[in-house]
Automatic annotation (TrEMBL):
Span of the signal peptide: none
GO molecular function, one term: ATP binding
The protein, known as: non-specific serine/threonine protein kinase
Pfam families membership: Ank_2 (PF12796), PK_Tyr_Ser-Thr (PF07714)
Record keywords: ANK repeat, ATP-binding, Kinase, Nucleotide-binding, Repeat, Serine/threonine-protein kinase, Transferase
UniProt repeat feature ANK, residue ranges: 74-106
Superkingdom of source: Eukaryota
GO CC term (a single one): cytoplasm
Keyword ATP-binding listed: yes
Binding site for ATP: K193
Listed EC numbers: 2.7.11.1
Length: 440
């Protein structure tokens, strides 16, 4: 049983007493475990659809037919994803398994609306053949609206600052640029990155802010923090994302210490799924500041993680998977920084793989890498060829994965897709081991 499930069990059954309390505990843990499994399976079918892996999609549907209409946080189904990318075989598989061809996402768009907008002609014909409609309740966003939008001549993500409610706002983060607040928008809790008024006219600050907005509007994945909108036409400049109640991984590890291997692997899977999406060709997003503070927990049950904070990210059009980009300089947080970045050498997306290894080490050991060093000194020590030492007993496969990911030779570091395959095998191992412990 995961740590989150055990916490849930204790909370549900701690005061019941006797056998009824134990039953409540087991039921609570089981519900949490089931919820966690649902989130994981939803992420998987959306991911495999995005990767055009019809075999994996078919296998998931054989295991759970209801996944055919699974929805992400934007209420988009696997068929929306397949339609947008033109993955014909995957779409046929989904339709054959009962996919709702007229499911509507958060913007009331059907899969056919997405296919038409992306000019996927074979997909358009397939969806129409099965009764697909272009319009949702308010019409496709690829067609003229009958009612003009309230904010004329603005992008559809531009938010009217008067709609933001700061009456009960709380500060959840600070930086040199400004602060991050928990506020409300149309009755929904949100996170607002607000630029300091004194910096609102700074050309570089405005440039960085617009870069982050332009990057976020392109991203949509269950393991990436969801962008909701921005205030760009009035001051202060503000960037709005979903608010995740579980806080960040840094605080979680500070409170919990070392995680059991199964929990660490499950956390690593969520991080790796989000990063595999970001590293997808041809538009590669290099995070460049992957660290526990930038990984957020969806809720207090800690059963779903998302990658966030793309202030230092770069989007690169790469022709080949192993292209080395002409970017140098000390970008990101020292403690999790790849040696090639610290040394001001050319680097590629493998810098994120290195940071991932340091995070996985911290989850397994309970301490940040080289916690006895100041961050800059830790980065320098790593750049000199040193790596953290494992003090706890871990399987050879798990240690090998971490050591491969933080290799000084970037060509040896695996891709996040390869990491996912290794983590899935490790999860099977630890799940089986955990299963037997429950019955001993």
């Amino acid at each position: 049983m995961s740590a989150a499930a055990e916490d849930a069990a204790a909370a549900e059954g701690g005061s019941g007493g006797g056998s009824s309390g134990a039953g409540s505990s087991e039921g609570g843990a089981r519900r949490r475990f089931d919820d966690k499994g649902l989130v994981a399976r939803t992420s998987l079918i959306l991911w495999h659809t995005h990767q055009n892996d019809v075999g994996a999609v078919r296998k998931l549907l054989e295991e759970d037919a209801a996944l055919v209409n699974a929805r992400d946080y934007d209420s988009r189904t696997p068929l929306h994803v397949a339609a947008l990318h033109g993955w014909h075989d995957v779409a046929e598989c989904l339709v054959a398994n009962g996919a709702d061809v007229n499911a509507q996402d958060r913007w009331q768009n059907t899969p056919l609306a997405d296919a038409e907008g992306a000019k996927r002609q074979p997909m358009i014909e397939l969806l129409k053949e099965h009764g697909g409609l272009t319009y949702g309740k308010t019409g496709s966003h690829f067609e003229p609206k009958t009612i003009p939008p309230p904010l004329t001549n603005k992008a559809d993500w531009e938010i009217n600052p008067l709609e933001l409610d700061f009456t009960k706002a709380t500060v959840i983060g600070k930086g040199s640029f400004g602060e991050i607040l928990k506020a409300n928008w149309r009755g929904t809790p949100i996170a607002v990155k607000r630029i300091l008024p004194s910096l609102s006219d700074d050309r570089l600050v405005i440039q960085d802010f617009k870069h982050e907005v332009n990057l976020l509007i392109k991203l949509r994945h269950p393991n990436v923090v969801q962008f909701l909108g921005a205030v760009t036409e009035t001051k202060p400049l503000m960037l709005i994302t979903e608010f995740l109640r579980g806080g960040d991984l840094h605080q979680y590890l500070k409170d919990k210490g070392a995680l059991n291997p199964l929990t660490a692997v499950n956390f690593a899977l969520d991080i790796a799924r989000g990063m595999a999406y970001l590293h997808n060709e041809p538009n590669v997003v290099i995070h460049r500041d992957l660290k526990p503070r930038n990984i957020l927990l969806v809720n207090s049950a800690a059963n779903h993680l998302k990658v966030g904070d793309f202030g230092l990210s770069k989007i690169i059009k790469a022709q080949h998977a192993n292209d080395v980009y002409k970017m140098t300089g000390e970008t990101g947080s020292y403690r999790y920084m790849a040696p090639e970045v610290f040394k001001h050498r050319k680097y590629d997306k493998k810098v994120d793989i290195f940071s991932f290894a340091m995070i996985l080490y911290e989850m397994l050991e309970g301490d940040s890498p080289f916690s006895n060093y100041e961050p800059y000194e830790a980065a320098k020590y790593v750049a000199d060829g040193h790596r953290p030492v494992f003090r706890k007993n871990h399987t050879t496969e798990l240690k090998d994965l971490v050591e491969l990911c933080w290799s000084g030779d970037i060509s040896l570091r695996p891709s996040f897709l390869e990491i996912l395959k290794r983590l899935e095998k490790l999860k099977e191992h630890y799940s089986h081991e955990n299963h037997w412990h429950l019955f001993q």
